[in-house]
Amino acid sequence: MKKYKIKTHKSTVKRFKITGSGKVIRQKQQERNNSHLRSFKNRKQKSIRKDKLVISSKGNIRKIKKLIVS
């Protein structure tokens, strides 16, 4: 009997990253929409929103890893 391979969930791969120690990291929602009307924002507003990462909640880590690694 054939075993079926589980495909990776591509949108999850784009949104989350697994660090070397196994933590799951994502960007805050504000930063994902950072490019919206960027030309009208000043330098301070843009720099505040840049490169902020958040560790995902413990309850979702197992589910996210399953979707990414499969």
TrEMBL record:
<dbReference type="GO" id="GO:0006412">
    <property type="term" value="P:translation"/>
</dbReference>
<keyword id="KW-0687">Ribonucleoprotein</keyword>
<dbReference type="InterPro" id="IPR021137">
    <property type="entry name" value="Ribosomal_bL35-like"/>
</dbReference>
<dbReference type="Pfam" id="PF01632">
    <property type="entry name" value="Ribosomal_L35p"/>
</dbReference>
<feature type="compositionally biased region" description="Basic residues">
    <location>
        <begin position="38"/>
        <end position="47"/>
    </location>
</feature>
<dbReference type="GO" id="GO:0005840">
    <property type="term" value="C:ribosome"/>
</dbReference>
<dbReference type="GO" id="GO:0003735">
    <property type="term" value="F:structural constituent of ribosome"/>
</dbReference>
<keyword id="KW-0689">Ribosomal protein</keyword>
<dbReference type="InterPro" id="IPR037229">
    <property type="entry name" value="Ribosomal_bL35_sf"/>
</dbReference>
<comment type="similarity">
    <text>Belongs to the bacterial ribosomal protein bL35 family.</text>
</comment>
<dbReference type="InterPro" id="IPR001706">
    <property type="entry name" value="Ribosomal_bL35"/>
</dbReference>
<feature type="region of interest" description="Disordered">
    <location>
        <begin position="27"/>
        <end position="51"/>
    </location>
</feature>
<dbReference type="GO" id="GO:1990904">
    <property type="term" value="C:ribonucleoprotein complex"/>
</dbReference>
<protein>
    <recommendedName>
        <fullName>50S ribosomal protein L35</fullName>
    </recommendedName>
</protein>
